[in-house]
Amino acid sequence: MWPRDAKKKVKLAEVKGPTEVDFVSTIEARGDAQVASPVSGVRAALFRIEIVERFAEDEMGDSPDRYVTVGGIVIGDMLSLRPKGQDASITVAVRRAFFSFAVPLSGGVPLTRVPPELMAIVRRASGRGSLCVREYPLSHGDEVRLRAFVDPVHSVVASGYRSGVHKGFVARDDLGPVLVEELHTPIPF
Length: 189
Prior knowledge:
By secondary structure, this protein is mostly beta strands. The protein is built from one helix and 13 strands.
């Protein structure tokens, strides 16, 4: 049964093998760790892109338009998360994780150009409404909650006479679900 209630706080420094964790973490994604949205060109750690069909309810503007989800995809490769109060980072394979976004978007922006990544989704549309797109980015510095099994990985870092071993962690989707939940950040007024 997932999620389990953690009985004690886990410190990554003490993890020797596969361990279940529940951490509030910060996304680390700069430079090459970012991907570009195929729709807007904006760069972020990852995107959930949703295609919706807009149906106009009333020609006089008395009732709101209705949006029906056609489908969606997650764009991204690897996500690096730094748990609060921890020294190591955890790598998550984006396409093997489940994402939950804090604030579902409403409406949508008209889709003027269909990128190849979205073609299969667009083909599922009924054709009776206008196609629109919604983008949900997760960017460097955003806070998320990670619930997963993690396992330590070691890699050799070659840098002249200061070579050494770097210890990191990887989320293991073969041991249980990898859940990444965006945390709601209130906007100060």
